[in-house]
Amino acid sequence: MSDLVLVTGASGYVAGHLVKELHEHGYRVRGTVRSLARSGTLPHLPGLELVEADLTSDAGWAAAVADCRFVVHTASPFPSGEPEHEDELVRPAVDGTLRVLRAAAAAGVERVVLTSSIAAIRVGHGGDRVLTEEDWSNPAACNAYEKSKTLAERAAWDFAAAHPELELAVINPGMILGPIQYAEVRTSVDALRILLAAEMPGAPRLNFATVDVRDLAVAHRLAMTAPEAAGNRYICAGRELSLPDMARVLATRYRVPTRTLPDWLVRLVARFNPSAALAARYLGRRELLSAAKAENELGWSMRPIEQTLLDTAESLIRFGVVADPGAPRAHASRKAPRPQTASA
């Protein structure tokens, strides 16, 4: 049986770690990029076969999935701010997912693993209830990115129901952190870059359920092969941690601002800054989710968030994305916070 896996969006942050994980476990891997002329080779991923296929076009997908046993669809637009029109995100996400699924079904692929998001789970629920895979976001309450993930995943499940010969498993990660593999910053890691660069005098009151990109790669591999994963979605997100608490973890090794920015200041800056406007929408929002299903059914586990944060910072400095902010002053004793635990 073929051991060939197609990973879409091979130049991406998640895909890069997934390709490495699959290679280490003996799989042959083919990756898609939007343009071979622009991508050339990916030097951080030696031995990866690259093919050209774009989510906005049918061209190239039949060749991309040919002879593959598995497909892992990680490619999806991830903005730094709200687009002018939601269809800039929603249509590529939905249509691209369906293109991949149609090509996979036609080629006789055994299973597709889709990278969705907790954005397809967490929106529109009141209170502090811990959310599980049974929960879905309300599209009417979503911003463009959240709607794109919700509708793309819904479309994938509808397609799978109509094509039972194709198995589908879905991974719903939280905020993805962890070391970068080359000198390019993806949106989810940019928050740490801003803290390390001291671009703000502190951190806004934002809460996140995070996952290490290396652990996320493992989750995708497990969902690809575990018999019980077919027909299931899996939350991959750890304990809730605020951005100021992340800053305090970084401050155990680096000189970074640790004060919590007042909400009124964030809302003021949001009038002129698209990234701040996106952040202002979520001030104080809780992010409580349970990863128990992935842990129990897939045997998945997460490394400590403190290790993830410090490893991410080290990689940003090593690749020259941000200058080394230096060690904290000797007299400033900082103790890393204990993140809150979300129990189901």
Topology of this structure?
Elements: E1 4-8, H1 13-24, E2 28-33, H2 36-39, E3 49-52, H3 61-65, E4 70-73, H4 87-107, E5 111-115, H5 144-162, E6 167-173, E7 175-177, H6 187-196, E8 207-212, H7 213-225, E9 232-236, E10 240-242, H8 243-250, H9 263-270, H10 274-280, H11 292-298, H12 305-318
Parallel strand pairs: 1-2, 1-4, 2-3, 4-5, 5-6, 6-9, 7-8
Antiparallel strand pairs: 8-10
Summarize the structure.
By secondary structure, the protein is an alpha/beta fold.
Describe the structure in your own words.
This protein is α/β, with parallel strands linked by helices and 344 residues long. It has a domain at 4-179 and 210-236: NAD(P)-binding Rossmann-like Domain (Rossmann fold), CATH 3.40.50.720. The chain has helices at residues 13-24, 36-39, 61-65, 87-107, 144-162, 187-196, 213-225, 243-250, 263-270, 274-280, 292-298, 305-318; strands at residues 4-8, 28-33, 49-52, 70-73, 111-115, 167-173, 175-177, 207-212, 232-236, 240-242. The strands form two sheets. It has a seven-stranded parallel sheet with strand order 3-2-1-4-5-6-9, with helices on both faces. A three-stranded mixed sheet has the order 7-8-10. It starts with a strand and ends in a 26-residue tail after the last helix. 44% of the residues are buried. The model is unreliable at 339-344 (pLDDT under 50).
